[in-house]
Design goal:
Blueprint lengths: L8 E5 L4 H12 L3 E6 L3 H12 L5 E5 L5 H15 L2 E6 L15 H28 L3 E8 L10 H21 L4 E8 L6 H8 L4 H9 L9 H12 L10 E4 L6
Parallel strand pairs: 1-2, 1-4, 2-3, 4-5, 5-6, 6-7
Helix pairs in contact: 1-2, 1-8, 3-4, 4-5
Length: 256
Amino acid sequence: MSKDFPEGAVMVFGGSGGIGKGVAMEFAKAGTNVAICYRSKKEVAEATAEAIRALGVKASIHQMDVRNRAEVVAGIDAAIAEHGRIHSIVWGAGPIVAQVPLADWTEDQFRQSMEIEAFGFYNAVHTAIPHFRAKGGGSFVHLGSAGHDWWPHLDGLSVAPKACNEALIKGIAKEEGVNEIRANSILVGVIDAGQFKVGQEEGYFDEAWETAVKAMLPIKRWGLAEDIGQAAVFFASNKANYVTGQTISVAGGFGV
């Protein structure tokens, strides 16, 4: 077990997604056990767990719909039973969203985004805090959006619910610091995985879009899932045990 983390495991919500898989692997490389949460991609979750086990690290998978509080409670309880303790939660769960102007959102689209990302995160937070308190502390790491600082054209269904979670991160940091519970956020830019890959396939992100966005980036490449994972590892580790309520942008300089 790595000295950079307490005993137990990190729990990665959205661990079967394009970015989530990379995050889970970076924690495994850092030497801590990993509990992978997924909703429907069991094969992907299990393959990621096997890759983690091949590194000599313990891994488990836990199926749940984060909109359902009872399923979240059962999943966290199962992870605690498997690993003895959850020392960190990384929140990366979220739907693949349509790229449409705010004026054209349907109520169902907005409701789904909010229920999965904002209410889902609340369900995880509300369930994990008593466990963290009982174990002497813990860490939340939220994977937000670089659009929090600069509204990206058509991506509001992703940005808006994450903005709610950014506020919750600040609240957790201020209210739970006395219990050694930390909360920080990573503003995620264009990462060559997940939503971006789907958007490319569906034609949302064409060559002209990519050229225009790269023109705004000091670092002239797309980020990798590993880049997000390495930032999450830092926030959750003992190396950052006096860091809370903070946000870093892992976006190649987007918004600079």
